[in-house]
Amino acid sequence: MNGLEKELEVLDRVSLERRLRVSASVPESPGYTVRGERVLLNLSSNDYLGLAQHPAIVEAMRNSLLIEGAGAGASRHVTGNRPSYVQLEQALAEWQNRDAALVFANGYMANAGVIGALVSRGDVVFSDQFNHASIVDGIVMSRAEHARYRHNDMEHLRALLNKHRHRRRKLIVTDAVFSMDGDQANLIEIAALKKEYGAMLMVDEAHSGGIYGLRGEGLSLELGLENDVDIHMGTFSKSFGVYGAYVCGSSTLTRWLVNKARPLMYSTALPPSLIAGISKALDLVQSEHWRREQLLTASAFFRSSLCQAGFNVGEGNCPIVPLIAGDNDTALRFSHALETEGIAAAAIRPPTVPDGTARIRFSLSAAHTFKELTDAVTRIRSIGLQLGVLDSCDQS
Ligand code: PMP
User: How far separated are the first and last CA of the chain, in Å rounded?
Assistant: First the structure.
């Protein structure tokens, strides 16, 4: 078909072809997954707080299904805007200490929709080079200029802000925690720069929501920056264990998005059962602080154990722990060997990460025990030795 087969062959040859694997859940064991006949320790899920199978969430969804049915039937602008949507958005705004919140179908649509609604041709978006693909796609679709700054390089961001200081609309956008590296954006400096240059600031809290802050509000609020962040975006697909996304900010922002965000306007509302599940998850995220504590303690332990074993796992204090393997083939072989040893952990390759930094992206959950993680480190270490990854990594 128009040369697609040939291009796929090339992808396969350089170990870059993606293939969809089937992974089933294990009832009552959120830290595990099933592949074929085998039960594997799941070190590749974003179910950080271990809520994806929580009985209270499942019960809320089941009850809603019985009462409200399967689908919303139309977009929120038509007849899909159920009372539960409005209640959820009020609860989200209260949780985030902001005026208003707006639910989106998922994080990809939220990022694409918000950026497309706020900027257009002639405007400029300043975006960290490691920002999520949905942010990049949002910028491309908006037709605004993409001013990409080097990862966490505040001098570079300043230089670009200076260069574009006369533009009509300027938007700085960053992940709070970077999805493939697990490090944090320098939100304090970014907030200072946004004020100095009169830009808007958008923060994607997909990997920090539920994890930081006393009630899991995320990094901006933990740092006391909620009023400097004009657009706070978060997802329900990770710490919440469900699906969907939200944006918080001023009531002007949400009013604007209701009128301009195309993924919201031209797509069917989420099924009511999802809204019921998300609302229950929001209660649990806020009240069950022990999940955050357990997750962060386990993550620190796992990261330091891998580091002591001699792996290059970067720095950070979050449940995303990247083990840099280098080339694509080694990362793939590492992932296959882990599976043989009873661990599901995906190899992440370009273009998701820069060339030469293919990796295993471990992500932990409050559902994992120290015993499981200790055993996993032993197995990871022996695979690292076999594949020569330990020898080649930076042990400084
Ligand atoms: N932002 C970031 C930083 C993400 O990692 C992801 C998904 N992995 C998204 C947005 C998209 O969220 P969703 O999966 O809800 O579409």
Answer: 50
Residue with tokens 């809603």: 64
The Å distance, Cα 388 to ligand 1 centre, comes to 32
363 Cβ closer than 6 Å to some ligand 1 atom: no
CATH code for residues 4-49+289-395 = 3.90.1150.10
Query: Could you tell me the CA-to-CA distances from 44 to 22, 145, 322, 341 in Å, in that order?
Result: 13, 34, 11, 15
pLDDT exceeds 70 at position 391: no
| Pairwise CA distance, residues 148 & 160, whole Å | 9
Percent of the chain with pLDDT over 70: 98
Burial of 70 (0-12, 13-18, 19+ CB in 10 A): exposed
3-state secondary structure of 182: coil
Q: Whose CA is nearest to atom 9 of ligand 1?
A: 107
Q: How many residues in the chain?
A: 396
Q: What is the pLDDT of residues 334-390, one digit of tens each?
A: 999 999 999 999 999 999 999 999 999 999 999 999 999 999 999 999 999 999 887
Distance 364 CA to ligand 1 centre (A): 17
Query: Active site includes 151?
Result: no
Q: Respond yes or no: is residue 54 known to be catalytic.
A: no
207 in catalytic set: yes
pLDDT band at 148 (very low <50, low <70, confident <90, very high): very high
Prior bond of 55 cis (ω within 30°): no
User: Which pair of tokens denotes residue 373?
Assistant: 């993680």
- Report d(CA 220, CA 336) in Å as an integer: 37
pLDDT band, residue 48 (cuts 50/70/90): very high
The average pLDDT across 174-184 equals: 96
Question: Is 394 a residue whose pLDDT tops 50?
Answer: no
Q: Which fold has domain 55-287?
A: Aspartate Aminotransferase; domain 2 (3.40.640)
Q: Is ligand 1 within 6 A of the CB of residue 212?
A: no
């970077």: which residue's tokens?
Answer: 178
Domains of the chain by residue range: 4-49+289-395, 55-287
Is-above-0.85 flag for pTM? yes
**Residue with CA at minimum distance from ligand 1 atom 13:** 107
Q: Residue 118 corresponds to which amino acid?
A: L
* CA distances to 180, 299, 362, 363, 380 from 343, in Å: 19, 16, 10, 12, 9
